[in-house]
Amino acid sequence: MIVKNNLLNFKDAYIYQDTDYFKFSLDSLLLANFVTINLRDKNILDIATGNAPIPMLLSYRTKANIYGVEIQKSVFDLGVKSIIENKMDKQITIINDDAKNVINLFGDDYFDVITCNPPYFDTNNSLFENVNSVKAIARHEKLLNLDDIFTISKRVLKTYGRLAMVHRTERLTQILDIASKYGFMAKKIRFIYPKENRNSDLMLIEFVKGGKKGLKMIYPLIVYDSDGNYNIEIKNMFGDDAHDTK
Q1: Domains of the chain listed by start with CATH number
Q2: Residue numbers of the chain with a pLDDT score lower than 50
Q3: Beta strands of the chain (E only): which ranges?
Q4: What is the pLDDT of residue 126?
Q5: Are 95 and 69 in contact (CB under 8 A)?
Q6: How far lies 207's CA from each of 49, 51, 75, 187, 192, in Å?
Q7: Global pTM?
Q8: Which ranges of 51-195 does DSSP label H, i.e. alpha helix?
Q9: For residue 11, what are the contacts with CB-CB under 8 A and spacing of at least 6?
Q10: CA-to-CA distance for 126 and 146, rounded, in angstroms?
Q11: How far apart are alpha carbons 56 and 40 in whole angstroms?
Q12: pLDDT reported for residue 67
């Protein structure tokens, strides 16, 4: 069922979602806040954009042109509908295509920043056989894997451009190995913990294409307090004031 929800606490902003698939998660919000955005950035790409939460959230931080690419037509349609509803279509363009075709659409060295909330699990994961194929593609590396993401980024990202992603903490060493193979250097990492005294399940990581050594390990982000409510830092991400840097 397609529903129209408020885009967090942003004034008069909405996002269309299909409850049969999945709703946009905290992961996207965290990534949109984590990625480094500079005033000189002109073009930003979000790979595997889904129904476009990251491009919409980024639009509150920058005047840059923002592009999203999503291979699944049903999810893409929801993103387009949300962008038009929010009158963001002059800044945000969503493309219904395989992310690997971005190279042909834009050519080399076009983007200043790339973001990606990718499929978290490889196809050997026991959860891969999902009845809902839309969810299966979004969650598993059936059509887009880590090598694909770095191959695309190596081509279309400018030298010293930034690639930021959110991913499962358990895959950190694999991600770092693949990044190095394609000439990307990790520059900042932040581990996400659901609660105090719990292990990290997610991480935010930003790479620089052709970057030099020097990693900044940001202090941990704990999502919930002892009462089960969002911590204040998370709450501060939910509204206009936390993002409006234009």
Answers
A1: 2-242 (3.40.50.150)
A2: 128, 131, 241-246
A3: 2-6, 14-18, 43-47, 65-70, 92-96, 111-116, 157-168, 184-193, 202-209, 216-222
A4: 52
A5: yes
A6: 19, 24, 27, 5, 18
A7: 0.90
A8: 53-58, 73-85, 102-106, 133-139, 146-156, 172-181
A9: 240
A10: 19
A11: 19
A12: 99
